């Protein structure tokens, strides 16, 4: 689950992290009071959507102007103009679709005198099985570009869970970020704060970009992006405070439905819907679709032990996407039995009155039984012998060949 920047900052602030004063608004009639609540002389007006790259983003509507989704107001009047220009508009960034995301809330924040911008994030390092800090002196930039062009400028520091963040760890972070004086002293405090927030709230990712050194020498969290482990959130009573921050208007209806069925579903921009069991098989399926000239419309993993109802639900979720021109079902039956998959797919086909081509590839446990069920169904389902055959058939089918 993701939350907005202003919510992430409130979570971090509750642990003692240094953040600027700010006010979130969810309607235009709150704007003036929010701006008046901050001292100035600089107001930072930030669109709040679940996507990165807001500052470089562009609004679809001409009324919003040419500036991005993060703007500076050098007077109360200018800050108010920025709020009015952005609120309700659709912001397109590198992490949104071409349709963008509607800005339904805005965060107005006190400005900061920035001396230096740094990058800091935290995640679970799968190689070490530990929480790790990832830092770079190249803050405020696209970290993927930094990793590609100058990977030596990104350093990873893993934390021993038995000790938490030690003085030595904080020292390594300061050295990596080239901090001294007040900023180095602040890191001795900030690193344990962020680690405690990350672990106690079961975060899966925490990104502070940029972490700034201000002209007075102190550190401040200027931007914050946080996501949480869905499995931890699913434990009743564990993180009710975090669940209360969920903004369903930012979530795709298909993703919400997928969570209800415990499906791994990620919408993409292509035309071929994919239903697969296993993340590795899903990636291979998407790759081979691209190999033959088309794009996947989703990542949908039904898991290893799905039943007929779950399979049918996954199929119907895929069909909700208007971009889908064809569907490829690629199942390798291990724990999951291919005859159960076949029954679930056919039930969904009947219920949704499927109008796009469907290719099904089944292999593994009860594969022949599953193929027989499909063959004898009388429905317009195209069988495939293997993954390569399946990909070629679904691409040909949506092209009318």
List keywords for this structure.
401 residues; alpha+beta; 35% helix; 24% strand; globular
Plain-language structure description:
This protein has 401 residues and is an alpha+beta fold. The protein has 14 helices and 19 strands. It has helices spanning 5-14, 31-36, 76-86, 143-149, 167-177, 181-200, 230-233, 240-243, 253-260, 279-291, 308-319, 338-352, 367-375, 387-398, and strands spanning 22-25, 43-47, 58-59, 70-73, 90-92, 101-102, 106-110, 114-125, 130-136, 154-158, 203-214, 219-221, 225-228, 264-267, 272-276, 298-301, 326-333, 358-364, 382-383. The strands form five sheets. Strands 8, 9, 10, 11, 12 and 13 form a six-stranded antiparallel sheet that branches. A four-stranded antiparallel sheet has the order 1-7-2-4. A four-stranded parallel sheet has the order 15-17-18-19, sandwiched between helices. Helix 11 crosses helix 12 (338-352) and helix 12 (338-352) runs parallel beside helix 13 (367-375). The model has no long low-confidence stretch (mean pLDDT 91).
Brief overview:
With 401 residues, this protein is an alpha+beta fold. The chain has helices spanning 5-14, 31-36, 76-86, 143-149, 167-177, 181-200, 230-233, 240-243, 253-260, 279-291, 308-319, 338-352, 367-375, 387-398; strands at residues 22-25, 43-47, 58-59, 70-73, 90-92, 101-102, 106-110, 114-125, 130-136, 154-158, 203-214, 219-221, 225-228, 264-267, 272-276, 298-301, 326-333, 358-364, 382-383.
